[in-house]
Amino acid sequence: MSIGGIIMAIVIGLVAGLIARAVIPGKQDLGIVATIVLGIIGSVVGNLLAGLIFRGEAEFDLGGWWASIIGAIIVLGIYVAVAGRGRRSVSR
């Protein structure tokens, strides 16, 4: 992957992560780096799912804004569910 590809992955990750954080209700304790990582992971997940649904094959891809955003929302939703469950069990 070239420097331009890496920068594009970071930009896509940031935008997808920010949109996902705006869509999912509640407070997420994530910094900017965690938001970028969330978006990049969501981008991979979303594009893998889109490839499976529409083309019938799993491809590793970072393209596709809508799939990146949907994947980031899915990943953040799972994160909030898992992290929220851990917080509730500790509090009194």
TrEMBL record:
Span-the-membrane segments of this chain are 6-24, 31-53, 65-84
Q: Name one GO cellular component term.
A: plasma membrane
What keywords are assigned to this protein? Cell membrane, Membrane, Transmembrane, Transmembrane helix
Q: How does it sit in the membrane?
A: Multi-pass membrane protein
Name any one Pfam family assigned in the record.
Answer: Transgly_assoc
Superkingdom classification of source: Bacteria
Q: Where in or outside the cell?
A: Cell membrane
Family assignment? Answer: Belongs to the UPF0410 family.
State what protein this is by name: Uncharacterized membrane protein YeaQ/YmgE, transglycosylase-associated protein family
